[in-house]
Write a structure and sequence with these properties.
With 201 residues, this protein is of the alpha/beta class. It has two domains: 49 residues, Helicase, Ruva Protein, domain 3; 125 residues, Dna Topoisomerase Vi A Subunit, Chain: A, domain 2, CATH 3.40.1360. Helix content is 43%, strand content 11%. It has a five-stranded mixed beta sheet with strand order 4-3-5-6-7. Helix 1 crosses helix 2 and helix 5 packs across helix 8. It starts with 6 loop residues before the first helix and ends with a strand.
């Protein structure tokens, strides 16, 4: 990258710029910050990152992140097992949990159907949702995919599948801008969207 810099420094800059939202200037700031910190502190950070990558896995029930086989939300007996909120990613689950408005359980798809990108129903965690509906007494499925073309298409596809099984399917209501990302919406707007959810036809 820069011939006048030590190779290991250039390699660190290159790796840091692979992080989302991190440009070259920010990568340099991070690198110099780490350079100025005590060796033990940097080693601790590296150890945490290593443990994070090795210990975090996905819940066997809902696909949320966890260090156990089943995540705390799925294990919580106080949560309503008859209502499932379907989200695109774990970031969206976290955003909804922050509102404190939802007391049911979740299903994380880890993506959306996007034919233009070659992503079909079999490429996201949809089968697990259908299995849960078959095996459990589910009364309502709230679809909380992002309000963009792929999110809407995925919501309609899921609704069509679940309607055949006699499940009530709703969609988050007003307050979420079209084309916006759920994880970026504030707690009040998300709470209103949950309360104002509508039935998908």
């Amino acid at each position: 990258m820069y011939s006048f810099l030590p190779e290991v420094f250039s390699k660190l800059i290159n790796e840091l710029t692979k992080l989302p939202g991190v440009g070259e200037k920010t990568a340099f700031k991070f690198a110099f910050f780490l350079l100025k910190r005590p060796k033990e502190e940097v080693e601790h950070l590296a150890d945490i990152i290593f443990k994070f990558k090795n210990e975090i896995k996905y819940c066997k029930v809902c696909n949320n992140i966890t260090t156990e086989e089943i995540c705390p939300i799925c294990r919580d007996p106080a949560r309503d097992p008859s209502t499932i909120c379907v989200v695109e990613g774990v970031e969206d689950l976290i955003a909804i949990e922050k509102t404190g408005s939802f007391k049911g359980k979740y299903h994380v798809l880890h993506g959306v159907i996007s034919p233009l990108d070659g992503i079909g129903p079999d490429d996201i965690k949809l089968k697990g949702l259908l299995d849960r509906v078959e095996k459990s007494k589910i009364k309502e499925v709230i679809i909380a995919t992002n309000p963009d073309i792929e999110g809407e298409g995925t919501a309609l596809y899921i609704a069509k599948l679940l309607k055949k099984k006699g499940i009530k399917v709703t969609r988050l209501g007003y307050g979420i801008p079209v084309g916006g990302d759920l994880e970026l919406v504030d707690e009040v707007t998300l709470s209103q969207a949950l309360e104002g959810r509508k039935v998908l036809d």
